[in-house]
Each structure stands twice: as structure tokens, then as C-alpha cells.
Amino acid sequence: MSISTDESARSIQTTVPSAPTVEKKSFQQSPHLLPAEPLVVIEPTTSRLTVNFKELWAYRELFYFLVWRDIKVRYKQTLLGVAWVVAQPLFTTVIFTLFFGILARVPSEGVPYPVFAFAGLLPWTFFSTAVTQSGNSLISNSNLITKVYFPRIIIPAAAIGGGLLDFAISFVVLVGLMLYYQVAPTWGLLLLPFLVLLVTLFAFAMGTWLSALNVKYRDVRHLLPFLLQMWMFASPVIYPPTFVPERWRWLIILNPLTGIINGFRAAIFPQKQFNWPGLGVSCAITLFFLVYALYTFRRMEKNFADIV
């Protein structure tokens, strides 16, 4: 029995489902899809000196990671490892003792010259290493700066945090030298944490300022070693401040490291007395330069990702 053409077409139409209809709705008809409040609010700061401590606290784990990374990278694949922290100031003390303590007979204010020199090299080595690492930190982490946002001030701060571990290890060596030369400590050791904080703030200010300049002016990287070398001889590292003629002594007091290094020795040796005016000058210059360094860093921070 044959089926007609019209009946076949009607049967096909009944078996094929019709396409669903899509109702077009505009966003004006669905206001509930839009958030009631903006998700991110971007506001300008009222001052370039403002430090967002809440934001820094939120990124504290990044700070810990960068400090630990710098420590691991510094001594990775080295034969002596952490012993290099002790070897550098110890060998330098031996050379200074030979040339300045024995041959040149530089006075050490009644303290054995090896202990006198090592006590000056301890804060100086921390300062010079921290400034060097911090001054080059933004250039060394350029790939991190250009890819993700975080407070840029964390990078130079983390570079200084790693130097505090070296300082603590070297201080143990100083204690050993004091025991060997029978130098008794004094109650001035109670001021040692304040002096460590002061030299850390000054190193942070100097490193932060140089790191910002180093992004724009790459000459800073070549100038920094020469600057630190000259700065060491301009600081009372291998000689006491009284070794300088009195008419030029006011000039060396303007160096913040003079009051800091002299304070370190006064806190350790009973023969030394604190020079409170010189320490006050160091505190004032450190605080002033810290504010200036933060201002310069904040002013240049917005262009780091473009020119680094």
C-alpha cells in the first residue's frame, strides 16, 4: 500500500520538534545583575609620605618569602656557606690589625685593637651589605614588579632583613673575641637593640632611596661600591673619633655612622663613654633621611613597572 506525498510530509512535520524560542532581555530589564556597590575602589592618597601599614601587613607573607629567598640564594652552592658571614669581617680585622694596629699604631682607646676593629666592622659590614643588596633590589626583581601588584617598598625592606641574620652570627664571633681578650661587658649592652634598630633604619632609608634612583639612573649601580668604600674611611671603623683633629671633628660627627659606631663600642667596652650629642645627631639625620627616602620612593614608584 503506497503512501501519498502529502501524508509523508505531514508525518515528518509531526516528528521533528520545533526550535526553542529565545527571549532577548536587556540589562535594563535585569537590574539585579549589577552589583549594588563597586567591588574595587581606587582613591588617590592625600600625601606621598603616607605608608599604608594595613596593606603592608596583608603582604607580610611575601616579605617573609623574599627574606628567606635572599638568604637561600646568597649561600646556595657555596663550600663554606654561612661561614662567609664570619670570614669577611674576621679576615678584614686581621688585615686592619696588621697595618693600622701594629704598623701605623692607630689608638684604640685602651681596648685590644682586634676587638676594637671588629666592633666597628660589625655595624659597618651590616650597613654596607644591606645598602648594596637593597639598592639593587628593584632591578634584580624586575620580572616580579612588571607582572603582579604588591607594595614595592617590600622589596628593599626584604633585602635588609636578610642582613640581620648575618649580623647576629657575626655578633657571636665578637663575643668570642671579648672572651679571648678578657674584655668584660657593661650595662650599656641594654642599649644595643636601640643601636641595631637605628643602623637598620638608616640602612633602610639609604637603600630605599638608592633603589628608586637605580631604576631611573643605572649609574647608581656602578657608583655604589665606590661610595661605600669612601664612606668606610670617612667613618670611625678603624680609628676612634678622637683620632681626627679637633678642628675637623665636627665634620665627622655629621656622618650618622659616627654616632652609631661609637655607640656600639660604648655599649660593649667599659673604657668607652656614650657621646650623647653625637648619638642625637645620628638619630636626627636618620629620621630626616628616612622621611626623605620614603617621599622619593613614593614619588617615583608609579613609573617603576614602565622603566625597570
Low-confidence stretches: 1-5, 8-17
Count of separate DSSP helical elements = 14
How helical, in percent, are the residues?
55-70%
**Which structural category do the helix and sheet elements fall into?**
mainly alpha
Cα gyration radius (Å): 32 Å
Which sequence of SSEs, written as H and E, runs from N to C?
Answer: HHHHHHHHHHHHHH
Q: Rough shape?
A: globular
Number of strands: 0
> How far is the first residue's CA from the last residue's CA?
87 Å
Average pLDDT metric: 83
Largest sheet data: none
Strand content bin:
under 5%
Structural description of this entry:
- By secondary structure, the protein is mainly α.
- Helix 5 packs antiparallel against helix 8.
- The chain is 65% helix and 0% strand.
- Residues 1-5 and 8-17 have low confidence and may be disordered.
- The protein is built from 14 helices and no strands.
Question: Can you describe this structure in just a few lines?
Answer:
This protein is mainly alpha-helical and 308 residues long.
Keywords for this entry:
single chain; 14 helices; 308 residues; mainly alpha
Please give the structural blueprint:
Layout: H1 5-15, H2 53-58, H3 60-74, H4 83-103, H5 113-135, H6 137-140, H7 142-145, H8 154-180, H9 192-216, H10 219-233, H11 249-253, H12 256-268, H13 276-301, H14 304-307
Helix pairs in contact: 3-8, 4-5, 4-8, 5-8, 5-9, 5-10, 5-12, 8-9, 9-12, 9-13, 12-13
